[in-house]
Design the sequence.
C-alpha cells in the first residue's frame, strides 16, 4: 500500500546549533537501517533530520503520511517502536531503539 | 493517593498557576500532565538531557514555572494521560506504572488548545506541518525540517515561525497570510498593552524584512504537490472570508517544507464529556464552555482555566489559573468572600490587561467562514479515515444536519485523532448548509479523552480477576 | 429536512424511528399504506445506531432462534430489499467457555439452540483455534455457528433513509410527541409542531415504550439496560470471526476497516429520563480484559472511543410485539433484547399482521405482561 519510493519524501532536515546543548548522538535502527539521533529528542524530529518523512500509508487511499502536529494530536506519525505502535512525536529517542515505519499496516 | 481537594489537568501556564494558587490556600492539590514536565505547549521544557545555552522569554518563563513548582510541595503526576472522568469526578489515568484512579470534589481543566488547519489539496503530504507543530519543532526540539520553508495561514504564529526559521539559518520562500495588513495594524492598539510581546513581534518583522522574505497578504495555499526531492506550493489571492477569488494560481514556490495553520481551537474534551453548557464564540476560537468570571462551568466543581476556555494567550492564562485556584479555595471554604475579593483584585487587573493582547491575537486567528468553500471536492478532510469533502457533501445532502450525524454517516471524526484535525472543517461545511456553527452543533464528548493503549490499561491479570456481572438471560 | 406536518390523515403513524419502528413503517408503506414515521431525534440515533452490530445466533434466546435466522437472511440481503448493505459481513461465530461452569453453560445453551434450529456445533479448543487463529489459550470448549456476522450499526439510519423516501413514508424527525389521543376512527398524535391523525398507531419507542404506553393507559414495565461499548483504532488483522462467550458477557468483532468493537452488556450509568450517562470504569475494564483474554493481540491496540446505549427488556425478557389489548388499531413493537439481529424480521412480521397478512411466525402479544385487573382507559392525555 505505501508508496515504495515517494517523491519529495526524502528531504533531510538538520539540527539547529546554538540554543541547546545536546547529548551525544546515539544509534537507533529505522526499518533495519542504523540512524544517528540524539538521546531524548523526539523520534519525529530525529526522523525528519534523517530525511524519513513518509512514515505510514493512509488507511483507505494508501497515501503517504508523516508527522504533522508534533503534539500527539493528529496521529499521523504512528510508528512501531520495539514492537509497539506509538506516536513518534511523543516518543523520546533511546539508544538501540528499533523503529518500524508503515506502522502495522499490511 | 491520599485525599485530594483538587485535581488540575494540564500543567501549562494556566494549570500550573491554578495548582500553585490552590496549594497556597491550603488545598490538597494534584497537578497532572501527559508531558514529562510542566510548561504546556508555549513554555515547553527542553528534552531530557538537553541543556539550554540561550533562553528567550518563553524559555525563561517556563524555567521559572518549573522551578516554582519544584520548590513547592505540590503533588504532580507527569507522564500521565487522563482518559476518563465520571460524573462523580472519579478520574482514570494511565502512567508508566499502569492505570491509576484519583477522586476529588473539584477539577480544573487547563488542557489548552489544538491547531485548526483548513484542508487544501496536498495538506496531508509529508513535509507539511502545522504552525504550532513547527513551533514545537523549531523551539523545543531545535530541528529544522528542511532548508527552504513556505509559511502560511494566519495569526501571530505565522510571523513567529518565519522568524524562528530565519533565526535557525533557514530560508523562507514566502510568508502567506490570510489577513491583510490592515488587520494587523488594527490589532496594534490592543497589543500595546503588552509592550514586551509587541517588541518581540516587531523583532520578527525586522528579521523578516532584513531577510527579504516576500509577504503575500490576503493569500492562501491553493495546493501542495510532492515533486522530486521537494514540495511545490501554489498560492492564490483570497477575499476577507478566506475564499479564493479566482481559479488561477498566482505563484508556485519550490520549497523543502511547509508550515501552515489557521488559528487555535480551545480544547473542550473534558467539559463536553462532563456535560457542561457550551456556547459558540467565534472570537474566542469556537465552542467554549460557558464560564463565570473565575472559570466555573455549569457543572459544580468543574472549572476551566487558560486557552481551553477561550483564546487569550499565555499571560492571561496564568491569571485565569490563579483565579480558578482562588475560586476553588473559596468554594471549599479556605478563604471567605472578602479574602477572595482582596486576592482577586490585582489578578483581575493583570488579567484585563493581558486579555486585550490575547483577544487581538484571537481575532487574527478567528475562523474565516469562506475557507471551507475553497476546498475541492476530492480533497481529504478527515485524515484518519480518508474522508473527502465530496463524501461530506453527500452526507449533508442526504440529511445530516449536525456534526454527530455527519460523523456517523461518513466516519469523519471516528479515527484516533477523535475529530481534532477534521472537526473544524467538517463543522464549517455543515454550517454552510445549516446556516451557522451553532446550528451545526457541537461534537458529543466521549471517553477516552485521548486514545489509550490497551496494554497500559489492562495490566496483568488472570481470568478470575475479571469481575463478571450477572449473565444476560438465556 | 424537517417536514411541516399538518392534520392530514395517515393510515399508520409509527412513533419511534429505531430499527423496528423504521422497518414497520417501510413495509407498511410498501404494502400500500400512507405512513408517518415520527421521532423526537433523527432516525436510528438511539440503541439501533449505537449497538455493537453483532448478528449472532449464540446470543439469541432459543425461542427467538427462528426469528434471528430470518433476520440474518434479511441483513445479508439488505442490499437487495433495502438498497444499502450496511457493510454486513457473514462469518463464523465462536462462543467460548473458559471455565468448567462456562463449558456446562455452553453445552446447555448450544443444545437448546440446536433444538430450535440453529446450526451450532460444539467444537474442541483445537478446532476453535483453527477457525479463529487469534484465540488465546485457556479455551475449554467452544461452539461454532457458521452463519454469524456483523453490521455497522451506525449506518442503520442512513441505510433506511432512501428506502423510506422511495416508499413514500413521511419522515418526521426532531418532532417529539407529547400526547396521543384515541378518537373516532383512530388516533390523534400531537407534539410541538405536530398534529397528526392516524387510523392505526404503532409505538416503537425502545426504552421509552413504558412512558409511551402510559399515554394510552397501559402499564407495562420496561427495564432499561445501559450497555457500554468500546472501539479501537484500526488494527492489523487480529481476528476473523465474531467472538462471544457462554455467559453472554462478550461480543467481539473486527470490521473490514480494522477497528475492533467490544461489547457484552457491561453496564454503565444512565436512565430513561436523562439518557446515557458516564461509563463505569470497572465495567469497561472488565469488558476489555475479557476481550483481551479471548483475543490477546488486542492488547497492542489503543482504545479510541467508548459510549453507552440504552436497551429495553421486558419482565420475562421476551419481546413485546403485537396489538395493544383493548385499543383497536394500536400496536407495539420492541424489547427484543439483542434485537438487532432479528430486528428487520420482527418489523416485517408486525407489518404483515397490520396489513392483514398472516405473519409467518407468532408475534409476542403483551397481554402476558400486563396486570390482570387493569383496564386501559380510552382517552388519556399525556402528562
Sequence:
Amino acid at each position: 500500500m505505501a508508496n515504495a519510493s515517494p517523491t519529495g519524501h526524502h528531504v533531510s532536515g538538520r539540527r539547529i546549533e546554538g540554543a541547546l546543548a545536546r547529548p551525544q548522538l546515539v544509534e537507533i535502527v529505522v526499518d533495519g537501517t542504523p540512524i544517528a539521533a540524539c538521546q531524548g529528542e523526539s523520534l519525529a524530529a530525529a526522523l525528519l533530520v534523517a530525511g524519513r518523512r513518509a512514515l505510514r500509508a493512509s488507511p483507505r487511499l494508501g497515501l503517504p503520511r508523516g508527522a504533522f502536529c508534533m503534539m500527539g494530536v493528529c496521529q499521523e506519525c504512528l510508528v512501531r517502536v520495539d514492537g509497539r505502535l506509538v506516536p513518534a512525536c511523543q516518543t523520546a529517542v533511546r539508544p538501540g531503539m528499533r523503529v518500524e515505519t508503515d506502522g502495522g499496516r499490511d | 493517593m491520599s485525599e485530594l481537594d483538587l485535581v488540575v489537568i494540564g500543567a501549562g501556564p494556566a494549570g500550573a498557576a491554578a495548582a500553585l494558587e490552590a496549594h497556597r490556600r491550603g488545598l490538597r492539590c494534584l497537578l497532572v500532565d501527559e508531558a514529562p514536565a510542566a510548561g504546556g505547549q508555549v513554555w515547553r521544557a527542553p528534552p531530557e538531557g538537553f541543556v539550554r545555552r540561550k533562553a528567550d522569554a518563553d524559555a525563561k518563563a517556563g524555567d521559572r514555572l518549573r522551578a516554582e513548582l519544584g520548590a513547592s510541595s505540590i503533588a504532580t503526576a507527569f507522564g500521565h494521560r487522563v482518559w476518563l472522568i465520571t460524573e462523580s469526578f472519579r478520574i482514570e489515568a494511565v502512567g508508566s506504572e499502569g492505570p491509576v484512579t484519583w477522586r476529588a470534589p473539584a477539577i480544573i481543566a487547563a488542557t489548552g488548545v489544538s491547531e485548526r488547519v483548513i484542508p487544501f489539496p496536498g495538506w496531508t503530504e509529508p513535509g507539511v506541518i502545522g504552525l504550532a507543530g513547527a513551533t514545537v519543532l523549531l523551539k523545543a526540539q531545535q530541528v529544522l525540517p528542511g532548508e527552504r520553508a513556505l509559511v502560511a495561514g494566519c495569526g501571530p504564529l505565522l510571523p513567529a515561525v518565519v522568524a524562528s526559521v530565519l533565526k535557525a539559518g533557514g530560508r523562507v520562500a514566502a510568508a502567506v497570510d490570510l489577513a491583510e495588513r490592515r488587520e494587523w495594524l488594527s490589532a496594534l492598539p490592543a497589543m500595546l498593552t503588552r509592550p514586551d510581546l509587541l517588541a518581540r513581534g516587531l523583532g520578527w518583522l525586522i528579521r523578516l524584512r532584513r531577510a527579504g522574505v516576500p509577504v503575500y497578504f490576503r493569500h492562501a495555499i491553493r495546493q501542495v504537490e510532492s515533486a522530486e526531492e521537494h514540495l511545490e506550493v501554489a498560492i492564490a489571492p483570497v477575499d476577507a472570508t478566506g475564499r479564493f477569488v479566482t481559479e488561477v494560481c498566482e505563484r508556485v514556490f519550490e520549497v523543502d517544507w511547509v508550515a501552515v495553520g489557521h488559528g487555535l481551537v480551545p480544547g473542550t474534551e473534558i467539559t463536553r464529556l462532563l456535560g457542561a453548557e457550551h456556547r459558540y464564540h467565534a472570537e474566542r476560537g469556537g465552542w467554549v464552555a460557558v464560564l463565570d468570571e473565575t472559570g466555573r462551568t455549569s457543572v459544580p466543581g468543574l472549572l476551566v482555566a487558560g486557552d481551553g476556555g477561550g483564546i487569550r494567550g499565555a499571560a492571561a492564562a496564568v491569571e485565569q489559573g490563579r483565579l480558578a485556584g482562588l475560586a476553588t479555595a473559596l468554594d471549599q471554604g479556605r478563604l471567605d468572600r472578602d479574602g477572595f475579593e482582596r486576592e482577586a483584585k490585582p489578578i483581575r487587573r493583570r488579567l484585563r490587561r493581558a486579555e486585550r493582547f490575547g483577544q487581538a491575537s484571537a481575532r487574527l486567528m478567528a475562523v474565516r467562514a469562506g475557507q471551507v468553500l475553497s476546498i475541492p471536492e476530492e480533497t481529504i478532510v478527515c485524515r484518519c479515515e480518508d474522508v473527502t469533502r465530496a463524501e461530506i457533501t453527500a452526507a449533508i445532502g442526504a440529511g445530516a444536519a449536525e456534526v454527530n450525524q455527519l460523523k456517523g454517516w461518513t466516519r469523519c471524526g471516528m479515527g484516533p485523532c477523535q475529530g481534532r484535525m477534521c472537526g473544524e472543517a467538517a463543522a464549517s461545511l455543515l454550517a454552510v448548509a445549516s446556516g451557522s456553527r451553532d446550528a451545526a452543533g457541537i461534537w458529543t464528548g466521549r471517553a477516552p479523552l485521548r486514545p489509550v493503549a490497551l496494554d497500559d490499561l489492562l495490566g496483568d491479570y488472570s481470568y478470575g480477576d475479571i469481575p463478571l456481572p450477572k449473565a444476560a438471560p438465556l | 429536512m424537517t417536514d411541516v406536518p399538518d392534520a392530514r390523515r395517515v393510515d399508520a403513524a409509527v412513533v419511534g424511528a429505531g430499527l423496528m419502528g423504521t422497518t414497520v413503517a417501510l413495509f407498511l408503506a410498501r404494502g400500500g399504506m400512507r405512513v408517518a414515521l415520527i421521532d423526537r431525534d433523527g432516525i436510528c440515533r438511539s440503541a439501533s445506531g449505537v449497538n455493537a452490530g453483532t448478528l449472532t445466533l449464540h446470543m439469541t434466546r432459543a425461542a427467538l432462534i427462528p426469528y434471528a435466522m430470518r433476520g440474518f437472511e434479511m441483513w445479508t440481503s439488505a442490499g437487495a430489499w433495502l438498497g444499502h448493505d450496511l457493510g454486513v459481513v457473514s462469518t463464523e461465530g465462536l462462543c467460548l467457555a473458559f471455565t468448567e461452569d462456562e463449558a456446562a453453560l455452553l453445552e446447555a445453551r448450544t443444545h437448546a439452540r440446536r433444538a430450535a434450529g440453529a446450526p451450532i456445533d460444539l467444537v474442541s479448543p483445537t478446532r476453535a483455534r483453527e477457525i479463529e487463529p487469534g484465540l488465546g489459550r485457556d479455551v475449554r470448549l467452544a461452539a461454532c455457528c457458521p452463519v454469524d456476522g456483523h453490521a455497522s450499526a451506525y449506518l442503520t439510519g442512513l441505510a433506511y433513509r432512501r428506502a423510506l423516501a422511495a416508499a413514500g413514508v413521511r419522515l418526521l424527525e426532531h418532532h417529539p410527541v407529547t400526547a396521543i389521543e384515541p378518537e373516532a376512527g383512530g388516533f390523534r398524535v400531537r407534539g410541538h409542531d405536530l398534529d397528526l391523525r392516524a387510523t392505526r398507531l404503532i409505538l416503537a419507542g425502545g426504552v421509552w415504550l413504558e412512558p409511551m404506553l402510559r399515554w394510552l393507559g397501559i402499564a407495562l414495565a420496561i427495564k432499561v439496560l445501559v450497555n457500554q461499548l468500546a472501539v479501537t483504532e484500526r488494527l492489523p488483522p487480529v481476528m476473523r470471526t465474531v467472538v462471544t462467550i457462554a455467559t453472554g458477557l462478550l461480543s467481539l468483532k473486527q470490521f473490514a476497516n480494522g477497528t475492533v468493537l467490544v461489547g457484552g452488556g457491561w453496564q454503565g450509568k444512565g436512565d430513561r429520563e436523562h439518557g446515557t450517562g458516564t461509563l463505569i470504569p470497572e465495567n469497561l475494564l472488565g469488558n476489555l480484559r475479557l476481550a483481551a483474554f479471548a483475543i490477546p493481540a488486542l492488547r497492542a491496540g489503543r482504545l479510541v472511543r467508548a459510549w453507552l446505549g440504552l436497551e429495553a427488556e421486558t419482565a420475562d425478557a421476551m419481546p413485546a410485539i403485537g396489538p395493544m389489548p383493548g385499543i383497536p388499531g394500536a400496536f407495539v413493537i420492541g424489547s427484543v433484547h439483542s434485537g438487532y439481529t432479528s430486528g428487520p424480521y420482527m418489523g416485517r412480521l408486525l407489518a404483515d399482521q397490520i396489513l392483514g397478512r398472516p405473519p409467518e411466525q407468532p408475534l409476542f402479544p403483551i397481554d402476558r405482561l400486563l396486570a390482570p385487573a387493569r383496564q386501559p382507559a380510552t382517552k388519556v392525555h399525556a402528562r
About this structure: Chain B touches chain A through 57 residues (CB under 8 Å).
